[in-house]
Design a protein that fits this description.
mainly alpha, rod-shaped
Length: 85
């Protein structure tokens, strides 16, 4: 290592040579966590839109119909309840 190499070193390089590292602040860790969470939300929403079985309006209408349907309509019953057990 010559003098030019030493001049090019920054604070992080010098700490790394000594086997040390800078401590990140709490705010930086929180920002990184929220950033990762936000990226996960975007990726998940993109995958959900890419693999949606129907266009948005049709899917919303079907979900609304299923939520408004009464339990006595026969959906949601197990195979054992149909036998009268």
């Amino acid at each position: 290592m010559n003098l030019d190499d030493i001049r090019k070193l920054d604070k992080d390089d010098l700490l790394e040579l000594l086997g040390l590292q800078r401590k990140r602040s709490r705010g930086a860790r929180i920002a990184e966590t929220f950033g990762t969470f936000g990226l996960g939300l975007l990726v998940g929403a993109g995958i959900a839109l890419a693999f949606a079985p129907k266009p948005g309006r049709e899917l919303r209408d079907e979900i609304r119909d299923r939520l408004q349907r009464k339990p006595s309509d026969g959906e949601g019953r197990g195979a054992g309840s149909a036998r009268g057990a």
